[in-house]
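Example for tutorial group B:
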């Protein structure tokens, strides 16, 4: 993190709210990744991303399709595994075993959430840690907890890494800032606290969840809010301090029954521009960063699996 852009403390702070543009930042990241992929290809190595989708949830289908479009954009090969809703745990584990041994697959993900009859934790544990493109295998999460990055740099969970890189891209310095994270899920809420409290970021983090007694009191104190509960518009901008940096991460996807079109809603209700100093919209903020970070993990894995 570079320049220090302290949150304004005055009442008209929101009039100059600036956009944390995830689409533009992800594009820049992908340009850099495409160069690294070209360098790998020049050495005869083509990275391959595998995705495993169980069932036909329209949101998950759309995210997986987006991941493969991104792969094509930067030159990564795609391996798509599509399984029926009634796939058993054993059948799913057998598919993962195939990917664990497939030399064309550098890294892969299992799209979440899984149908309820499947054991998500056991599934994540069955992914080879070296091919864990989501950074959600317990060994990789454990390395994040232990803050070990040498000699091998482990894959980091994509959404938290996307948040950190988005803030970094805009030169926002979180040193000494109080970050309030809302939501304790394994893909965002839990790991982001670990990233933001590393010495290179040096923020102070409060993790709020459904058991938090006075969420409003925590929100009112926050210099930075990471809203990752997945509850549509649960946070009103008026609950936040003037000058707050707001990252709207949670996703609620609603389909209009008349048009059949899906619309995305974040966790923060409309109007954040009038309160925040910086804000990430939803859509258009952390979502595209999540996708770019997935590619980054695949490229990193390919580089590490083929060290000169
Ligand atoms: N295995 C995983 N499953 C899930 C993850 C994950 O990181 N790994 N995160 C989410 C879904 N997700 C990635 O899979 C994801 C969500 C949203 C976006 C995105 O780019 N959103 C766009 C809007 C897209 C739209 O209009 O439909 C945006 O925010 O602009 C990318 C990836 C749960 N599952």
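The residue assignment follows.
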């Amino acid at each position: 993190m570079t320049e220090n852009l302290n949150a304004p403390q005055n009442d008209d702070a929101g009039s100059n709210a600036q956009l944390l543009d995830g689409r533009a930042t992800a594009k820049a990241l992908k340009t850099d990744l495409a160069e690294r992929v070209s360098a790998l290809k020049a050495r005869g190595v083509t990275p391959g991303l595998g995705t495993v989708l169980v069932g036909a949830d329209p949101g998950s289908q759309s995210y997986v399709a987006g991941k493969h479009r991104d792969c094509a954009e930067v030159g990564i090969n795609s391996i798509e595994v599509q399984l029926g809703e009634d796939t058993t745990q054993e059948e799913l584990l057998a598919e993962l075993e195939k990917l664990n041994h497939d030399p064309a697959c550098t890294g892969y993900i299992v799209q979440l959430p899984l149908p309820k009859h499947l054991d998500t934790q056991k599934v994540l544990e069955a992914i080879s840690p070296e091919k864990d493109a989501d950074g959600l295998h317990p060994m990789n999460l454990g390395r994040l907890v232990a803050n070990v990055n040498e000699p091998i740099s482990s894959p980091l969970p994509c959404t938290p890494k996307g948040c950190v890189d988005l803030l970094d891209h805009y030169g926002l310095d979180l040193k000494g800032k109080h970050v309030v994270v809302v939501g304790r899920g394994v893909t965002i809420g839990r790991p982001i606290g670990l990233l933001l409290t590393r010495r290179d970021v040096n923020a102070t983090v409060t993790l709020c969840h459904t058991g938090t007694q006075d969420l409003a009191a925590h929100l009112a104190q926050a210099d930075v809010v990471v809203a990752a509960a997945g509850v549509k518009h649960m946070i009103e901008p008026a609950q936040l301090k003037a000058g707050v940096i707001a990252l709207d991460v949670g996703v609620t996807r609603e389909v209009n029954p008349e048009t059949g079109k899906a619309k995305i809603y974040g966790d923060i209700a409309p109007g954040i521009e009038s309160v925040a100093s910086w804000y990430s919209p939803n859509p258009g903020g952390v979502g595209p960063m999540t996708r770019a970070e997935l590619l980054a993990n695949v490229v990193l894995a390919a580089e590490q699996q083929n060290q000169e």
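The pocket of LMY7XDAE is lined by residues 62-63, 66, 109-112, 134, 158-159, 187, 251, 264, 282-284, 287-288, 290-291 (CB under 6 Å). Compare this with the pattern of hydrophobic and polar residues in the output above.
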